[in-house]
Design brief:
By secondary structure, this protein is an alpha+beta fold. The chain folds into 2 domains: 90 residues, no CATH class; 86 residues, no CATH class. Helix content is 36%, strand content 23%. It contains 6 helices and 9 strands. The strands form 2 sheets. Strands 1-9-3-4-6-7-2 form a 7-stranded mixed β-sheet, with no helix packed on it. The longest helix has 23 residues.
């Protein structure tokens, strides 16, 4: 499914033909809740396909976070030996490194779309970043992404939550459908990542 087909599907599920101008707003709402925490009332979705590992060169105190990053999992310098970087809050990093000393970085923090490293790099290092990437947003009619390709109804039901509210209908049906699908996707992704972890407890008769 692409964005154009998605808009048609949303209109069909809402049983309306007069919402063409506002359906893209419903899709933006769906994209917002898809980025929610998986434990939220309307759970977000965290597929393995969006777990990214990339490298970039760093040589200064501040460097850009990769575009479209949802959250950083871990950082390391690909030196010999490898140097894992420890996260500190901006306040703790400032307290631990109050001056502009240079060296091989051991800690980092994040300010918006920038990393800050401490000590300040004394040369050029290869940084390896493990992070979770946001889904590509849909703009052009031909656009698609992993979720729309593999689980299009999540987009449909997520958008219809906003659509039902817009037409002053009850969105509860779509909320329940969205939640059921999102939870199922997350559970399947966790199963594929870690495998089944089944604990069998002995059954005892109640006297």
């Amino acid at each position: 499914m692409n964005f154009s087909e998605l808009k048609t599907a949303i209109a069909n599920h809402l049983h309306r033909t007069d919402l063409t101008s506002v359906i893209p707003d419903f899709v933006k709402y769906a994209e917002t809740i898809i980025q929610n925490d998986p434990s939220a009332q309307l759970p977000g979705i965290r597929p393995r396909a969006n777990n990214i590992r990339a490298t970039q060169s760093i040589s200064s105190q501040y460097e850009d976070v990769p575009t479209n990053t949802m959250y950083v999992r871990d950082l390391q310098l690909n030196t010999n030996p490898v140097q894992a970087l420890t996260y500190l809050s901006p306040q703790d990093l400032s307290r631990k490194y109050p001056d502009t000393s240079t060296g091989k970085p051991t800690h980092y923090t994040i300010h918006g779309d920038e990393f800050e490293f401490a000590p300040i790099p004394d040369g050029t290092y290869t940084l390896e970043i493990s992070y979770h990437q946001k889904f590509d947003t849909l703009t052009a009619d031909s656009d698609t992404n992993w979720l729309l390709t593999n689980h299009p109804l999540v987009y449909v039901y997520g958008a219809c939550i906003a659509g039902a509210s817009y037409i002053e209908s009850n969105p509860q049906k779509f909320m329940a459908l969205y939640t059921q699908l999102a939870q199922g996707i997350n559970e399947a992704e966790m199963f594929n990542l870690y495998g089944a972890e089944v604990t069998t407890k002995p059954r005892t008769a109640t006297p």
